[in-house]
Specification:
By secondary structure, the protein is α/β, with parallel strands linked by helices. It is 39% helix and 19% strand. It is built from ten helices and twelve strands. Bound molecules: NADPH dihydro-nicotinamide-adenine-dinucleotide phosphate (NDP).
């Protein structure tokens, strides 16, 4: 009798737009590993029950996206040190003893994309971080670990920016600035947009004074959601501006590697998914 195909899924709400099933199918084809990977739409009220059903029916691992990253962290039996530091998780894995482990690889995926595909080395940079939500939190810890000189956080809701700064606990390198004070800040070496303004088709007013000729801009969003920020950065004179598609591929590849102990060909998958999603 043939062995049962391993089951994986991505959970989110909404989830129809997710590229994760396509990416994992690409990785499976590259590595010759048979698997089933589906997208499961679960409201916050349904999320824990949907996960319990998935794992009870033999699910091996799950990726988790908006708005469930904090709930995924709370659902797990154990959390990796990275997830504990952030208080959120985007990867749930069933361990051999049956316990569910939560991990977060968003920050590592962003850095891998910056360094591997965008030619950005954040070491020593003065960084402007826009946003203070879950993704901004992962980005901020990763950037500090990567050796940036400073992080200036600006967020629509100032209290969340201050809460993130407190969590980073590095007063020498982290400061908060009000959104209305951005005109008096900069220029920066690296501007990271970790807001969801683009996803919501909302304007993100930013002054050109944030930019100098060597500034690199990076949006964690991708596809149409990243176009307004990437367009602004280009018009404002940034040396380079990137979206977060490479980050998505890097985090998916890290999840795949964690489950199957095989590193897929990220560059080939990124080229294919970029081609598939060309406007
Ligand atoms: P959260 O909901 O946790 O945070 C959203 C952030 O965006 C908050 O700081 C919020 O500010 C800010 N924001 C929302 N709307 C506006 C607006 N109109 N103007 C200014 N700021 C706004 O989301 P996440 O942190 O999880 O995700 C943020 C983005 O990163 C999303 O677009 C997501 O798709 C992307 N992402 C990409 C990944 C990838 O692999 N490429 C991985 C993870 C995330 P406030 O506090 O005031 O509400």
């Amino acid at each position: 009798m043939p062995a049962a195909v391993s089951r994986y899924a991505v959970f989110g709400h909404p989830i129809a737009h997710s590229l994760s099933p396509r990416l994992h199918a690409l990785f499976a084809a590259q590595t010759g590993i048979a698997l089933e990977y589906t997208a499961i739409d679960a409201t916050p009220e349904m999320f824990a029950d949907a996960l319990r059903t998935f794992f009870a029916q033999g699910g091996r691992g799950a990726n988790v996206t908006l708005p469930h990253k904090a709930a995924a962290f709370a659902f797990a039996d154990v959390q990796t040190a990275t997830a504990q530091r952030l208080g959120v998780a985007n990867v749930l894995t069933r361990l051999p003893d049956g316990r569910i482990e939560a991990d977060s690889n968003d920050g590592a995926g962003m850095l891998a994309d910056m360094r591997g595909h965008c030619g950005i080395d954040p070491r020593g940079s003065e960084v402007l971080l826009l946003g203070a939500g879950g993704a901004a939190r992962a980005a901020a810890f990763a950037l500090l670990d990567a050796g940036v000189r400073s992080i200036t956080i600006a967020n629509r809701t100032a209290a969340r920016a201050h809460a993130l700064a407190r969590a980073l606990a590095n007063a020498a390198r982290v400061q908060v600035v009000g959104w209305d004070d951005l005109e008096r800040c900069g220029p920066f070496g690296l501007i990271v947009n970790a807001t969801s303004a683009g996803v919501q088709h909302a304007a993100l007013p930013l002054p050109p004074s944030l930019v100098q000729a060597s500034t690199a801009a990076y949006d964690l969003s991708y596809g149409p959601a990243a176009r307004p920020f990437v367009g602004w950065a280009t018009r404002a004179g940034c040396a380079d501006a990137f979206d977060g598609l490479g980050m998505l591929v890097e985090t998916a590849a890290a999840s795949f590697d964690r489950c199957h102990r095989v590193r897929p060909d990220v560059a080939a998958a990124l080229a294919k998914i970029t081609e598939d999603n060309r406007p």
